[in-house]
Design brief:
heterodimer, A: mainly alpha, 12 helices, B: mainly alpha, two-stranded antiparallel sheet, about 75% helix, disordered C terminus
């Protein structure tokens, strides 16, 4: 099957364009969640394992908004605000206790939050795969050889717009500057009168809001499920370690690259191996980086 | 009563209790079998995570590998595995005699453990150069990748899993698997009790405390890490092999490669107190009890309760029960003098000692 599909790609190059576009649409959303992870990682030294659950929750809030009669596009701000509040609450309840702890503690604690959210979503919203129909049409390029669902293209554009807004916020806004200062040196920031505790709370909440918005895009253009959060967490992690912390352009490039790679792998290996490919790619990326570092007598840490 | 005597008495009491349990609580044997296997998994995790400081989120891989390898061999000795899984196993088509069952178990369980150990050596070569959370996430990636790969592999039943060979009426499964589980746990208790009295423990503790210094002092850190992970995988794989038979049915996502169970192993060790001998034992018993209560009384909310428990454990009790006792009554943990000397006796002779010997 793999060989046949490969031949298909070679004989009809237009399929490559289709896969490339499909990959880019979803890759932008991966990048959005990854930016949030990089922010929390860089500022608070926490790897947030519940990242994917935040994305799913954003999607479910959009579904809920749609059931109340709103257009799903309104789900984006709604999910962002709701997740912002949730992120702030989680920070005040749990996360502030582990900011100073080692990273292993934060991995486990956020894992606990993630399984909690999984079952809560499962109980509240049901265990079905959900989508939110946006009512947008499908465009055809190259005389119908390429299909572009408009909602996917729109979610691509919106991901970039949200990313740009975040970048402006970090550069220009007072709080954004405080976040960057805390990331550079938390102690110095405290001495200069920055309330780092508030900065951490805001950072964690902003990350949750980004995930919520990403989730709203996912549910409109693709689908969500209470237990499908972990792949998003691992994708975010993979994107961040490939691009490095504090490298916005790199995160976008890695996100798009991952999206495209996934589409090709899913097409060539079969859809049932698409996730296996993602997870193995994570291991391969880590091993490759480690081998590269080992040559210099360094190691990944 | 010194510490060593107390340790031995507690160990013997636990083993005696394990032997007596089929008469004390015959109705809960399958639950208790799982408890023994969880104990073994907690030991396995703690060897690398608690003693050597490498926090693996993916020990569940060895559990699943051991499980699938054992079942595949148990079936494969008598029937073609692919046909067996295609027919969803069991039924009237694939009949196993008591003798075939016993032979299958006797060969399959060790085979599962060995395959898991072998895979740990391969993964270790790739991953053990990473440190801290990179190792943790890489192993988590391995665990979820294994689940996806198993779910796509038709030979072992793909997503619909595999059924353990149907037991003939002559075999009392509950009791047989209880004794197998207990036997493995007893082996683990005795083995780790011995292992932690050797210099191997000191070597891996040195890796945990400061790997660079340990390497500079001349420890073969890579070899020790690999050995620790291989032993850990051997026991986890054996536990998986027995678990597969115990639960009669295995599937990739919920039983064999369930990443959540991989985290349970960590929690048991942390709850009891990681890096100690009795930590995994106490942690496994307390955690398993709590889990059973949640799954019985809070069905539908059990993972919410478990998530809260996880957060409470790691945020408020990162040192675990044994660690808490150690802080409260530090006197209990002071090594008596004779023990130190006994430890030195087992050590290879020092350079000076060698010189004297050559004079004599």
């Amino acid at each position: 099957m793999t060989v046949q599909n490969l031949q298909l790609l070679l004989q009809a190059p237009i399929f490559n364009v289709q896969l490339l576009l499909d990959g880019m649409w979803i890759g932008a959303v991966f990048a959005l969640a990854a930016i949030g992870m990089a922010l929390v990682w860089g500022v608070m030294n926490i790897i947030n394992v519940s990242q994917g659950e935040f994305v799913m929750l954003g999607g479910f809030i959009t579904v809920w908004a749609m059931e109340q009669g709103l257009h799903p596009l309104f789900g984006i701000p709604l999910a962002a605000v709701a997740l912002f509040v949730l992120g702030w609450l989680l920070y005040r309840l749990v996360i502030w206790r582990i900011v100073e702890a080692d990273m292993f503690t934060s991995l486990l604690a956020t894992f606990g939050i993630s399984i909690m959210l999984q079952q809560l979503m499962n109980t509240v919203f049901g265990a079905d795969v959900r989508t939110a129909e946006s009512g947008l049409g499908i465009s055809f390029l190259f005389g119908g050889a390429i299909t572009v669902p408009q909602i996917k293209a729109l979610s691509f554009v919106l991901s970039f717009a949200i990313g740009l807004a975040l970048w402006l916020f970090l550069k220009k806004a007072r709080l954004g500057q405080a976040i960057r200062a805390t990331a550079q040196n938390a102690r110095a920031a405290r001495i200069l009168g920055i309330d780092t505790d508030r900065v951490y709370a805001a950072t964690y909440a902003i990350n949750a809001a980004l995930c919520g918005a990403a989730g709203a895009l996912v549910v409109m253009a693709w689908s969500i499920h209470p237990y499908m959060g972990l792949p998003y967490t691992l994708r975010s992690f993979m994107i961040v370690i490939t691009a490095g912390l504090g490298n916005l352009a790199g995160v976008i490039a890695a996100g798009l690259g991952l999206g495209v790679a996934e589409q090709f792998a899913g097409f060539l290996l079969g859809a049932e191996f698409q996730l296996a490919f993602v997870f193995l790619l994570l291991v391969v990326v880590l091993v490759a980086r480690q081998i590269a570092l080992a040559r210099k007598r360094q190691y990944l840490k | 009563m010194n510490r060593k005597t107390a340790h031995i008495i507690a160990l013997l009491a636990l083993l005696a209790l394990g032997l007596a349990l089929p008469w004390i609580a015959p109705a809960h044997l399958s639950q208790l079998s799982k408890l023994w296997l969880f104990l073994v998994m907690a030991f396995g995790w703690d060897l690398l995570g608690g003693q050597a400081g490498y926090n693996s989120f993916g020990n569940i891989v060895f559990f699943g590998i051991g499980m699938y390898a054992a079942l595949a061999l148990q079936v494969g000795l008598y029937y073609p595995v692919a046909e067996y899984t295609a027919a969803k196993g069991g039924g009237t088509e694939f009949v196993f005699t008591a003798r075939q069952i016993y032979t299958g178990l006797a060969l399959g369980i060790p085979f599962g453990g060995l395959v898991a150990m072998f895979s740990a050596v391969i993964f270790g070569g790739l991953l053990l150069g990473m440190r801290g959370h990179y190792f943790a996430i890489a192993t988590l990636g391995l665990a979820v990748a294994a689940a996806e790969l198993a779910a796509g592999w038709d030979y072992i039943g793909a997503g619909s899993g595999m059924v353990a060979p149907t037991l003939p009426d002559a075999v009392n499964g509950t009791r047989l698997f209880y004794y197998l589980s207990f036997g493995l746990a007893a082996l683990a208790l005795l083995f780790f009790s011995w292992l932690y009295s050797t210099r191997f423990r000191l070597a891996i503790n040195a890796i945990r405390d400061d790997e660079d210094k340990a390497e500079a002092m001349g420890h073969y850190t890579v070899r020790h890490k690999m050995m620790a992970w291989a032993i850990s995988a051997l026991f986890t794989g054996l536990a998986g092999a027995i678990y597969g038979n115990l639960s009669r049915f295995i599937d990739p996502h919920d039983i064999a490669f369930n990443a959540e169970v991989g985290v349970w192993m960590i929690l048991m060790a942390i709850l009891g107190g990681k890096g100690t001998f009795w930590g995994p034992v106490i942690g496994a018993i307390v955690f398993f009890g709590a889990k059973e209560l949640f799954w019985t009384w809070l069905l539908g909310w059990q993972r919410v309760a478990l998530g809260v428990l996880i957060v409470i454990i790691v945020v408020f009790f990162p040192r675990g029960i044994v660690g808490w006792v150690r802080e409260r009554w530090p006197r209990l943990f002071i090594e008596p003098e004779p023990d130190e000397e006994a430890l030195d006796d087992t050590a290879p002779p020092m350079a000076g000692g060698k010189g004297e010997a050559s004079h004599a």
